[in-house]
Write a structure and sequence with these properties.
Elements lengths: L1 E5 L2 E5 L6 E4 L28 E10 L6 E2 L6 H5 L6 E2 L14 E6 L13 E5 L4 E2 L2 E5 L3 E6 L5 E5 L9 E3 L6 E4 L4 E7 L7 E7 L4 E3 L5 E7 L2 E9 L3 E9 L4 E9 L2
Length: 262
Amino acid sequence: MKITRANGRICWIGLAVVFAGCSGPGSQPKEAPKSLVPVTPVYFKVDPATAGAVSGKISFSGKRPQRKKIDMDEDPQCAGMHHEAVYDDIVQAGPKGSLANVFVYVKSGLEGKQFEPVPQPAVIDQKGCGFHPRVLGIQSGQQLEVTNSDPVTHSIHPLPQKNREWNQNQPEGAPPLKRKFTATEVMIPVKCNIHKWMHSWIGVVEHPYFAVTGPDGSFSLPNLPPGTYTIAAWHEKLGTQEKQVTVAPSGKAEIAFAFKGE
């Protein structure tokens, strides 16, 4: 604390906490504002003795959209990585009617519960001049790592509505880009400003109960506390479906979503 005189007035100048106060005759010095104490979040812990699960499959029927051939001739290095034609296969339906790249998550039923962020990062790799995976789920506050396995420069450019937009070039051999999304947002489109055919999607939710279907169309949401939930299934071309399900203590519930083409 430093005390000075200015025009007959006594001044107190704070050092550790930035504040200043001056007083004339008969006045009292102002008190420094109290330091804000950070609030430690209280995370919800699932009781393993009563935890249940939701699982199911995503199916597709009807006519699949025609695949669009990707022209990589504008970048000979990208074209040289592929010996066969590459297609933008948005609807990846299996021979038995399964549907891949569907983002499945708990949309409602967990209100009032705060979950600890996942310590492991979620990863998007740029390989063969494409984003892998095409659809990614991530918990708000979880770290996203973007890697570049190609011998060319890419740029990753998420276009969120609720989170901060950013755009970053990533040359060959560059270290992973590390970012976080803080707000729930389903879904965030991602593009590469250098290679216009590169696209991906990121689903951000505030809990760990999400999944992306693989080639067999299956999904699983384990370790759910008992309750009634709205489960949503999103596909970039076929839209979103929702279903309600109740999970009993230690129970296992199954649901199925059926998407149709034109």
